[in-house]
């Protein structure tokens, strides 16, 4: 993924519009994923691949930090739902943390605030 010449924030490279950076931390069985940028039909496959890899590697709790997510569309929401279903099939859980006001509104409109644990 390319980055702009903007200064780095908290050690992460700046993300250009239309891009997504997924920062994974933690260790089995609990992981954190921070999404930086935009989660849409062009970036969702990248997030899906990393999320499903954690699930297949035995993750039981995945917390997705949405504090730096600038945009999410229906494709991005679908990846979140798919990941949640896969985790629950294995007895695990997914939590969402710190959604931006815009992202929280999308979650509310779609009813996903009733599906995910959100802090």
Rg (C-alpha, Å): 14 Å
Strand order in the largest sheet: 1-2-3-4-5
Number of helices: 3
CATH superfamily: STAS domain
Largest sheet: 5 strands, mixed
Number of strands: 5
Order of helices and strands: EEHEHEHE
End-to-end separation in angstroms reads: 29 Å
Q: Poorly predicted ranges (pLDDT <50, ≥5 residues)?
A: 1-9
Roughly what fraction of the amino acids lie in strands? Answer: 25-35%
Task: Write down the CATH topology.
Answer: Transcription Regulator spoIIAA
CATH architecture: 2-Layer Sandwich
Fraction of helical residues: 25-40%
Q: Rough shape?
A: globular
On the 0 to 100 scale, the average pLDDT is 89
CATH class: Alpha Beta
Structural class: alpha/beta
Whole-number count of domains: 1
Structure characterization notes:
The chain is of the alpha/beta class and 119 residues long. The chain has a single domain (21-118), classed as Transcription Regulator spoIIAA (2-Layer Sandwich). Helices cover 32% and strands 31% of the residues. It has three helices and five strands. It has helices at 44-56, 74-89, 101-109, and strands at 20-27, 30-39, 61-72, 93-97, 117-118. The chain has a five-stranded mixed β-sheet, sandwiched between helices. Helix 1 (44-56) packs parallel to helix 2 (74-89). It is globular, with a radius of gyration of 14 Å.
């Amino acid at each position: 993924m390319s980055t702009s010449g903007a200064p780095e924030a908290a050690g992460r490279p700046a993300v250009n519009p239309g891009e997504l950076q997924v920062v994974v931390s933690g260790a089995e069985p609990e992981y954190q994923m921070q999404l930086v940028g935009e989660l849409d039909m062009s970036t969702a496959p990248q997030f899906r691949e990393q999320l499903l890899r954690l699930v297949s590697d035995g993750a039981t709790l995945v917390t997705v930090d949405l504090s730096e997510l600038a945009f999410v569309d229906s494709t991005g929401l679908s990846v979140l739902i798919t990941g949640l279903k896969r985790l629950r099939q294995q007895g695990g859980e997914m939590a969402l943390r710190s959604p931006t006001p815009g992202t929280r509104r999308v979650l509310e409109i779609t009813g996903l605030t009733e599906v995910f644990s959100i802090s």
